Amino acid sequence: MVEMTQYLLSRPHTLISLTAFADRYQAAKSSISEDLAIIKEVFEDEGLGELHTLAGAAGGVKYIPKMKRSVSLDIMTEVCRQLEQPERVLPGGYLYMTDMLGQPRLLQDVGRIFATAFADRDIDVVMTVETKGIPLAFATANCLNLPVVIVRRDNKVTEGSAVSINYVSGSTKRIQTMSLARRALKEGSRVLIIDDFMKAGGTVQGMRDLLNEFNATVAGVGVFVESGEIGTEERLFNDYVSLAKLTAVDMKTKQMIVVPGNYFES
């Protein structure tokens, strides 16, 4: 049963037939079903996620990673406390958080939170722009069992032909360029955009515009930290999920206020 649990945990959002389990463990399907019922109960009691059962000849079980809202809030409350450290204040009101985005345990938790927030969306791929958003995107994609597409700041020769667009950075108001290889994304894909920090949303809006060139659809937008100093009327779009919000920055005293994001408001 322990090995079966690990097998499910390592294959999220993957339909596994009872026959596959029966062959793997040389056991009757009735015994497999009993074990899965116990695992399902443990997953739900411990807040590890859900085990969905699909009936029929082509049926089986599928593990959906999820995290309880109360657990997510505890994690992000601690993250906010760490982000409020004065030494993290950067010119322009930005936060230094590269060190935090290099912590595997935190990334695993954040990925699971994003996966919970978008678990019910029909998603084909997770997208981010280089570079700090990459670990967040991979952590989220790992929980959703999806591929990751990385938008580049410039075209790489090793990626072949690409689509490039110009966009206006929402924070600096400068015109910048982003590029995506034509082979990286299938036409008509449903895309979950993940980003590390958002002010007015220029970078994310740039990715949204880039997706139009692939006839792709934005299935959702997840942001690790958003700037609360940007008003709703200044934001380039308002349909997104944030896990933390930077509400105030005093550059003189290096004091900041960081609170849980809009994911915890609903």
UniProtKB/TrEMBL annotation:
Gene3D superfamilies: 3.40.50.2020, Winged helix-like DNA-binding domain superfamily/Winged helix DNA-binding domain. CDD domains: PRTases_typeI (cd06223). Residues 1-65 form the Bacterial purine repressor N-terminal domain. Keywords: DNA-binding, Transcription, Transcription regulation. Residues 100-242 form the Phosphoribosyltransferase domain. The keyword Zinc does not apply. It holds the Pfam family Pribosyltran. Belongs to the purine/pyrimidine phosphoribosyltransferase family. PurR subfamily. NCBIfam families: purR_Bsub (TIGR01743). Homodimer. This is Pur operon repressor.
